[in-house]
């Protein structure tokens, strides 16, 4: 059995001196003790009604949106197109349809994420995440290859040079699902890359290694020695390291100990969307298995429990530990909701942002997020000193963004953008970008 526990001694020592990491906050991701009954999700959170206005439509499945500058937006459309939104006009500035696997019908693969380099206005560097057919080095049993690539973008026109692609990272994906897909530069200038557990269900089966928790088979979420799955990676795209086309930050938690140096945190299932708050803390929305959805404040060397735990509950067993066999704490989420909860409920969490805009002053400083089954509302949570953050519903009372929420973005003014669709699969042209406003 693969037992990646020796690196925990290093992490425990680091935790004991409590050295904060710039860019990912100084707290410890506090939440209710794992295994306890969480407080109600409603009550104690900010309340507001929302409106939405259409920014652009005609997309298939807009899964990522970032501002290029001012009012211009870049949108990642899942079949493989990068689309520039400029006022009321849209145009495709890069088409990766011939490099991305077929995503017709229901699929979690495709063009999944994008991030502009912090100095993109001057250096024209763009980073994309997409699902490619199996490449050299990807086992024949794998579904596809995860690709992180760099492209050259002209900041003035928004055009992307398709021939400029430089592969940064490739990861074999055992199954077609749980691909995560987001990208985000932290305040520290490093690129954060959330990676799912490899797919299937329960973090087990082909392509899923064994871990230290014997009662439940698998999995990649609790392993940091065999592959990069089930983790949040952190790399330096402004450096190289031997044959690697990227550098490893010297303070990554496994540098100098057992484990792959790219790991920043682990114990994740399918961290679909990632953002950084104004204080530098890193918020990751981790899609659950069958019962619970969660938001984690992710920190250096943190273990977020999967597949020992799903949220604050045991997964696959009646009882489970709150620490690893070597004493490493399994960190609970700060936000959690169930698939059958009365108010805040859903089936796949869509991560959001700590709101910094001006259109909704009652929400400023609160964390706003949603669920794939949008049903005409978003969610909001407000931080508390201890325990899970109280969470409530924000009804959308004007505008019609559509029934399926795919992503949440943030414009240059801190206002929220919704990527939505009216199709449950990757087809048609009902996808749209909406801006969240106060209601009419």
How would you portray this structure in words?
- The protein has 440 residues and is mainly beta.
- It has a single domain, classed as Neuraminidase.
- 4% of the residues lie in helices and 37% in strands.
- It contains two helices and 26 strands.
- The chain has helices spanning 6-17, 120-123; strands at residues 50-59, 62-69, 72-77, 81-86, 89-95, 111-116, 125-132, 144-153, 160-173, 184-185, 191-195, 231-235, 263-266, 271-276, 282-286, 292-298, 309-310, 313-314, 335-338, 349-354, 367-371, 377-381, 391-398, 404-410, 416-421, 431-437.
- The longest helix has 12 residues, at 6-17.
- It is globular and about 55 Å long.
Topology:
Blueprint: H1 6-17, E1 50-59, E2 62-69, E3 72-77, E4 81-86, E5 89-95, E6 111-116, H2 120-123, E7 125-132, E8 144-153, E9 160-173, E10 184-185, E11 191-195, E12 231-235, E13 263-266, E14 271-276, E15 282-286, E16 292-298, E17 309-310, E18 313-314, E19 335-338, E20 349-354, E21 367-371, E22 377-381, E23 391-398, E24 404-410, E25 416-421, E26 431-437
Parallel strand pairs: 1-23
Antiparallel strand pairs: 1-26, 2-3, 3-4, 4-5, 6-7, 7-8, 8-9, 10-11, 11-12, 12-13, 14-15, 15-16, 16-19, 17-18, 20-21, 21-22, 22-23, 24-25, 25-26
Q: So what's the CATH class?
A: Mainly Beta
Structural class: mainly beta
Unreliable parts: 1-23, 25-40
Total tally of structural domains: 1
Please report the total strand number as a whole number.
Answer: 26
Q: How much is the average pLDDT?
A: 90
Q: Overall 3D geometry?
A: globular
Number of helices: 2
Annotated CATH topology: Neuraminidase
Helix content: under 10%
Taking Cα atoms only, what radius of gyration do you get, to the nearest Å?
20 Å
**Oligomer kind:** single chain
Largest sheet: 8 strands, mixed
Second CATH tier, the architecture: 6 Propeller
- N-to-C order of helices and strands: HEEEEEEHEEEEEEEEEEEEEEEEEEEE
| Percent range for β-strand residues | 35-45%
- In the CATH hierarchy, what is the superfamily? TolB, C-terminal domain
Query: What is the distance, rounded to the nearest whole angstrom, between the alpha carbons of the first and last residues?
Result: 59 Å
Cross-sheet strand order for the largest sheet: 20-21-22-23-1-26-25-24
């Amino acid at each position: 059995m693969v037992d990646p526990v020796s690196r925990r001694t290093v992490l425990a020592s680091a935790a004991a001196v409590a050295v904060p990491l710039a860019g990912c906050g100084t707290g410890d991701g506090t939440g209710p003790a794992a295994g306890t009954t969480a407080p109600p999700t409603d009550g104690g959170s900010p309340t507001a009604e929302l409106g939405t206005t259409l920014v652009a439509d005609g997309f298939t499945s807009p899964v990522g949106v970032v501002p290029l500058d001012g009012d211009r937006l870049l949108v990642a459309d899942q079949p493989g197109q990068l689309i520039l939104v400029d006022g009321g006009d849209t145009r495709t500035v890069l088409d990766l349809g011939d490099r991305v696997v077929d995503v017709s019908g229901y699929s979690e693969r495709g063009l999944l994420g994008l991030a502009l380099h912090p100095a993109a206005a001057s250096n024209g560097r763009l980073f994309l995440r997409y699902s490619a057919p199996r490449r050299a080095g990807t086992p024949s049993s794998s579904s596809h290859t995860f690709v992180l690539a760099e492209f050259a973008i002209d900041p003035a026109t928004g055009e992307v040079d398709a021939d400029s692609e430089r592969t940064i990272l490739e990861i074999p994906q055992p199954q077609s699902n749980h691909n995560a897909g987001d990208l985000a530069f932290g305040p520290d200038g490093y690129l954060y890359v959330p990676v799912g557990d490899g797919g299937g269900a329960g973090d087990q089966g082909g392509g899923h290694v064994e871990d230290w928790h014997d009662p439940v088979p698998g999995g990649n979420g609790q392993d940091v020695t065999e592959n990069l799955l089930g983790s949040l990676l952190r790399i330096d795209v402004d450096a190289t390291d031997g044959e690697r086309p990227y550098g490893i930050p010297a303070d990554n938690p496994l540098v100098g100990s057992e484990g792959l140096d790219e790991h920043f945190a682990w114990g994740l299932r399918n961290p679909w969307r990632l953002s950084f708050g104004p204080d530098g803390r890193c918020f990751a929305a981790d899609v659950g298995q069958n019962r619970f959805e969660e938001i984690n404040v992710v920190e250096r060397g943190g273990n977020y429990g999967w597949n020992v735990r799903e949220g604050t509950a045991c997964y696959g067993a009646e009882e489970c530990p709150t620490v690893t066999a070597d004493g490493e704490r399994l960190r609970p989420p700060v936000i959690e909701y169930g698939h059958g909860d009365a108010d805040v409920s859903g089936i796949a969490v869509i991560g959001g942002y700590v709101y910094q805009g001006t259109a909704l002053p009652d929400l400023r400083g609160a964390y706003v997020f949603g669920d794939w089954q949008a049903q005409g509302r978003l969610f909001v949570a407000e931080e508390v000193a201890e325990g899970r953050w109280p969470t409530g519903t924000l009804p959308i009372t004007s505008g019609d963004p559509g029934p399926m929420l795919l992503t949440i973005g943030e414009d240059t003014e801190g206002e929220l953008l919704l990527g939505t669709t009216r199709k449950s699969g990757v087809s048609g042209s009902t996808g749209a970008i909406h801006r969240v406003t106060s209601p009419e």
